[in-house]
Amino acid sequence: MTPPSLDEIADRLIRLAPSHKDPHRYFEEKSELIAALRWHAANDNRRVERAA
Prior knowledge:
The protein is an all-alpha fold. 75% of the residues lie in helices and 0% in strands. It is elongated, with a radius of gyration of 14 Å. The model has no long low-confidence stretch (mean pLDDT 89).
């Protein structure tokens, strides 16, 4: 499964805020976004290495 696009990640970051009703959800969402950004960074680095 591929992670969300960078635009989708940005949209989710804009809406990211702690909730008193579900405080753990903030940290779960944050972890998911970090993982998605790291996936994009790793794939971008691989693409650059292949082009060189």
